[in-house]
From TrEMBL, chains A, B:
Pfam families: Na_H_Exchanger. Residues 38-436 form the Cation/H+ exchanger transmembrane domain. This is Cation/H+ exchanger transmembrane domain-containing protein. GO terms for cellular component: plasma membrane. GO terms for molecular function: potassium:proton antiporter activity; sodium:proton antiporter activity. It is found in: Membrane.
Length: 539, 539
């Protein structure tokens, strides 16, 4: 009977697709179970489990197919950028602690934009010089520029897993926020490198690039905010929940995704767009939907993001044994290792070259308690060394399509970049968590940074009192009178935040809804704390 | 600046894919808004809105491209069967009223298996005779058999939208349950037709087919139940909720999907498998997860299913203007209309030929109150006339790959089948709801069937008393003493249900969890009613 059945085998479906999907879904299930079991282990996490599981299954496939191919699914940039990345970045925006994020906005922008550019320049220069020394001559200047952009793209997905938003709030928002801006910057740089005419570089090129970047940054952000506000306004006005919870959830999900796709269509940075769309949605839209939609969106978005993350790591792991590339590469193990080491050294130096200087500059402008200590600088440097799927996607894009150059150097570059990604993810991904605990948490109490928060909150309360008199709060009676200007100089971000809150309450919330502007449902997962985002507290 | 930007246009992503995804997501958003606005209109619904919107955008694309192609996304069976169908069928199983479903199980099996076979035979025969009369001679006997299988596949997606589980519970479970079994039957028939050697048909062939079907039916069902139980046991044992709600939701989603993919891989019926997996998951697994996972899964699965449904209708609508097929078809409008009418007439007759006889047979074996009145028979006949995406997918499979026959007849068959699908979905989809209200609800109170339920529940309570004595319930003191055998003869389904409940409580629930075997969380969306599934009541 089974014979007869398989003879009338799936006439309808494409068998390789079915096999690939089945393998991936099964691996995802395995990763989730493993991730659950190693939850309390501080060395392991889901990403590494997924990566190793992907590698292992790649090896098994390789054995089964007798060394022909390890790939069940060929790495596809569309799959990654269109389907896997958006849910991850959207969820990051949706669940980020907004107040903390905007408080560190200047830090994030400096690291994300100037840091990436410095790293890009250094890695390009280093690659150019080093490859000549090693004896690889077929790489053009353009290839080196591309390598600079490729290796400047940090992996924010793994960072999310190794840093804790609760334990190290400043580091989390700085490193993760940098990662989001870095994504945009490195993709802009990569696209610019692709389109640039090397023979015709002048002073204007750099200016043009900067202009492009600023255009991209602002239009992407505005698009994301606009779609977020549209969703808030639409859901508040039409009141979908009257008929169906499902429509609310569906429209939130689809509009967020639409913002990403429209941004990509307009050649903007979809990552920036969907990130800001997520922030706006959590601030307004989320409060306008029914209670069950709130619970559903919070967990469903997190789940989708979680599945996409795990999928990416399995994918990267399985794709690392891309045997055709390894064969084509034709390089000895020695050369591969030397090149990989050289690339990784460039990554280390490139990152150090901006983290420490920028931190110093920031420290000069800041008060004692808020400055970035040398230990934190080290962690910022360290946590941003992980390279991930964006790097691999860009590497494939650069080194697999070109037909003019020698194929074996291209293949070698891809395999070496894969080695860098695997090494950084496994080693840095597993060491970072214990390292942070050893370096930071034992010595400096993480609450100190929180206390700073409360101090500035206190200042804010002072600021909001029209007469500026002392608060009738026993513990703070000795608080000195401070002028508004003085406060602004001392706590510029807090003042901006205060002004924003006033503007928000007066103009935005009445139109777009948000907490306090929709009927309160008892038992909802809202916190009563003063955080702007209550998504985080009720986790 | 924009010029410069578009010149460094998306170096990374495939532009057509981005456009296609953007268009579809935008159309989905529009459909949701329209569906919300026409919610109270009993003639319109989301499916029809999606279909018409798809048609309209197809026309726009056709105009923009100056008549070259209306397709933003070419109809792809993989997309449909691998990504869109599973969430719909899983959710149907997850949210179905289980007691009602199993009560009507014999009806569902009779309609779904024998009905589909009768319809298949009649349509095949009719197509063979009619096409000869019309003058289309290039269709082989094999093509006619395929047409029989293709047009016997009812569309359960639209049925879900036009029938209400609350208002007409019997009709909903009968027609929808039939649809699920029908899907399996017609795909088995279609695959069988593909692999059969026409020149070598004997009496054994039919027997073989039946054997195949039974094998498929049981293995698929068992696989679904096994995966469902595995998820319940795994979640109960490992207690994922301890660390993360997201893992619970993810593992439920992935395991359900895995059951579908494994079934497809083994050439079983994925639809049957995932349907039963959904039923088992709602009975056991759903009760083993945390409170927020319960809310999330309930709404997230419904949302995914809802998005997939809407997507399919947009897809079918947009694909209807497949201009290359229309051009290739080369048939006059007259011929197309005649063939479409002939096909549709066959659908009408084919369905009538099994609904009425089977209903009569069923009525002979049933009590007066439970029999299928002529009005209900009419609705069952009517609601099952809708043809949908499965039909189109099978038609493309049959008539677009073959190279030996004349291409224009193949194309004509595809266009005619598309006409049948569009016509049946728009007309029957919009008329069915008002029709049911006119025919059924005005005359017969839908609650009569519910009262029957309570009567048999009463009987059950009698049955469960060891001494068989009367219940000390004031309203039922006059209930006559009935022997167990008498009860079994009068209410065989209820008795089976009772025995199942006993077995469930004694052996299954202690192992696999389920309601009452996990700590009760106050404020959970559980009902206190006696329904087996509380998913439905808390809707």
């Amino acid at each position: 009977m089974v014979q007869t059945l398989s003879s009338m085998a799936n006439a309808i479906l494409d068998q390789p697709t079915v096999i690939a999907v089945t393998v991936f879904v099964a691996l995802l299930c395995a990763c989730i179970v493993i991730g659950h079991l190693v939850e309390e282990n501080r060395w392991a996490n889901e990403s590494i489990a997924a990566l190793l599981l992907g590698l292992a299954s790649g090896a098994v496939v390789l054995l089964v197919r007798k060394g022909q191919s390890s790939q069940v699914l060929v790495f596809n940039e569309d799959l990654f950028f269109i389907y896997l990345l958006p849910p991850i970045i959207f969820n990051a925006g949706f669940q980020v602690k907004k107040k903390r994020f905007f408080k560190n906005f200047s830090v994030i922008l400096l690291f994300g934009i100037f840091g990436t550019i410095i790293s890009f320049c250094l890695i390009t220069l280093g690659a150019f010089l080093l490859f000549k020394k090693i004896g690889i001559t077929s790489l053009t200047m353009k290839d080196c520029l591309a390598i600079g952009a490729i290796l400047s793209a940090t992996d924010s997905v793994c960072t999310l897993q190794v840093l804790s938003q609760e334990q190290t709030p400043f580091l989390y928002s700085a490193v993760f926020g940098e990662g989001v801006v870095n994504d945009a910057t490195s993709i802009v740089l990569f696209n610019a490198v692709q389109s640039i005419d090397i023979s015709d570089i002048d002073g204007l090129t750099a200016l043009k690039l900067l202009g492009n970047f600023l255009y991209l940054f602002f239009t992407s952000t505005i698009l994301g905010i606009a779609v977020g506000l549209l969703s808030a306004f639409g859901i508040k006005t039409l009141y979908f929940g009257r008929h169906s919870t499902d429509r609310e959830v569906a429209i939130m999900m689809l509009l967020a995704y639409l913002s990403y796709m429209v941004a990509e269509l307009l050649s903007l940075s979809g990552i920036l767009t969907i990130f800001f769309c997520g922030i706006v949605m959590s601030h307004y839209t989320w409060h306008n939907v029914t209670e069950s939609s709130r619970v559903t969106t919070k967990h469903a978005f997190a789940t989708l993001s979680f599945i996409a993350e795990t999928f990416i790591f399995i994918y990267v792991g399985m794709d690392a044994l891309d045997i055709t590339k390894w064969k084509e590469s034709n390089a000895s193990a020695g050369t591969s290792i030397i090149v990989s080491l050289a690339l990784f050294a460039l990554v280390l130096v490139g990152r150090a070259a901006f983290v420490y200087p920028i931190s110093c500059i920031l420290n000069c402008t800041k008060q004692g308690s808020e400055e970035i200590e040398i230990k934190k600088q080290f962690i910022i440097w360290w946590a941003g060394l992980i390279r991930g799927a964006v790097t691999i996607a860009l590497a494939y894009n650069q080194f697999s399509s070109s037909g003019t150059k020698s194929a074996n150097v291209d293949s070698m570059m891809i395999t070496c970049i894969i080695i860098v990604v695997l090494f950084s993810t496994v080693v840095f991904g597993s060491v970072t968590k214990p390292l942070i605990q050893a370096v930071l948490l034992n010595n400096a109490n993480p609450l100190t940074s929180r206390e700073n928060d409360f101090v500035s909150l206190e200042d804010l309360r002072l600021l909001s009192l029209e007469n500026g008199g002392p608060v009738d709060n026993g513990s703070n009676q000795s608080a000195p009178r401070r002028s508004k200007l003085q406060l602004f100089i001392r706590h510029p971000t807090s003042t901006v935040h205060h002004l924003w809150r006033k503007f928000d309450d007066k103009f935005m919330r009445p139109v777009f809804g948000g907490r306090g502007f929709v009927p309160f449902v008892p038992g909802s997962p809202r916190s009563t704390a003063g955080e702007t985002s209550d998504l985080n507290n009720s986790n």
